[in-house]
Amino acid sequence: MNVPTYKTIHILGLGNLGKLTAHYLAASKSAPVTLLLHRSEQVNQWDEAGRSITVTTNGHSHIESSFQCEKTFESDPGNASQIHNLIVATKTYATTEALRPLRARLNADSTILFLQNGMGTVDEVTSSLFTTPSVRPHYYTGIVTHGVYTKRAFSVVHAGHGSIRVGAARPSDERGSLTPSLARAASPKYLLQCLCKAPGLSTSEESEEAILRIQLQKLAINAVINPLTTIFDCLNGQLFDNPRRLALSRLLLSEISSVISSVFASSMREKSDGEAMSNFSIPILEQIVLEAANQTAENISSMRQDMLNGRTTEIDHINGYIVEQGAKFGVDCSMNQMMVQLINEKRKLADAEIPEIFSGAKRD
Length: 364
Prior knowledge:
alpha/beta; 4-stranded mixed beta sheet
């Protein structure tokens, strides 16, 4: 029996999170799942893995093979079916180009869920691919707290059970008014309902305001833990052993607090109250950063993993986003700019170098 295309969930980006999400969705039998292979090497890896995804939890491996696959780098968009439900789990810097071959298959009846670190990809995708609001897909973003690492190609370990919190996202040209993408009659709820039916993902839906708050707080965590663990080459739990590192994190958070407060306030249709804005105060942000470091004490941050494996990092969509928004709102982000520079230069620092390196940032 043929399944209607509007019921199929397509997944683009098959890193740790993409594989985990695909596996649990397929295992739940809530919807057909199609994997979008956007690089030729993925095809070979998929064949070598027996065309299945393995997730290991608490020492037990679970294999799921009920997937369809498409090679997006070979297909003719004019002959391919519409994509109604798309989960994007690519690296932030690769998103726009990975989506480009799918542009003709996405429209106002489509829903795109971005499951990524960092921020800024929604605006990048919009300005490059979906410039007309009336035919733009519905956008959602997801904040993920699951701990996942790769065992081998198409095999991951689900090391820490967390959750996925999902909410509507707006590009900057829709902020401050009733958004066209959210006001259309077509319902984007099917994708969210399927995610909520996959027990291993622990998905919940949040309001637009709540998801932005969660996303900005997660950005603050990533903008401190990811680059600092990378330049000091340490586990998350070792990050604040030295008081100089803690002092440095406070300098970063001082800039981050001002920037994300401005982003949040400018994104709301109504003026935010003091209680809402207190979520971005320096003491609150420091508390959630320290809690995150303690809860993931034995983990290697994703940015440090990328650096150790010679991969491009997502620094431009984390601290780089802070710098970009700081320029927009008139906030000096010298510390975050220095962090971007150090990561892009693949620098490692000793604790004794902190005063010299970062005091210089303020003098530039």
